[in-house]
Write a structure and sequence with these properties.
With about 140 residues, the chain is an alpha+beta fold. The protein has two domains: about 1-95, Jelly Rolls; about 105-135, no CATH class. Helices cover about 15% and strands about 35% of the residues. The chain has two helices and seven strands; from the N terminus they run βαββββββα. Strands 1, 4, 5 and 7 form a four-stranded antiparallel sheet that branches. Strands 3-2-6 form a three-stranded antiparallel sheet, with no helix packed on it. The longest helix is centred in the C-terminal third of the chain and has 18 residues, at about 105-120. The chain starts with a strand and ends in a 21-residue tail after the last helix.
């Protein structure tokens, strides 16, 4: 996958000693070849934190992470806490093979459901651009 952005949500005010102070992120094709690509340190974080991906080497600009596995390793917590709270993790990726529709399902969503909504509520329905999820296609070796 081509990972464009990674964001982590931490909240020191709510979690105190459970909040990480140091996080290391590793990436690779599996557990056997994980390499660290970013290390973050925090004092009292609150909100979404963007993980820097500058210079990871993928894509035309060199700022796209190419990996099948991403590991987020919490190295240290505030006040030497034993447990940790990471309230959210978002990974934004681009699938180069994305495209195509969902066949009959797309027609059903655009047509039948749209007409029912129009009749019942008297509203116009925009067409949705549904794409076929990767797991619905034929298996392939990459």
């Amino acid at each position: 996958m081509s990972i464009l952005s990674i964001r982590i949500y931490l909240d020191f005010e709510a979690d105190e000693s459970y909040t990480p102070t140091r996080i290391t992120l590793l990436a690779g094709t599996g557990y056997h070849d994980l390499l660290p690509f970013s290390s973050l340190e925090f004092t009292q974080p609150k909100g979404w934190i963007d993980v820097p991906l500058e210079g990871v080497g993928g894509g035309p600009d060199g700022n796209t992470l190419r990996a099948f596995l991403v590991q987020v390793k919490v190295v240290e917590n505030h006040q030497n806490g034993k447990d940790t709270h990471v309230r959210g993790l978002k990974i934004y990726a681009r699938d180069e093979k994305a495209g195509g529709g969902m066949g009959g399902m797309e027609d059903l969503v655009r047509g039948e459901i749209g007409r029912k909504l129009e009749r019942s509520r008297g509203i116009a329905v925009r067409e949705t651009m549904l794409t076929e999820p990767d797991w619905m296609g034929e298996p392939e070796l990459r």
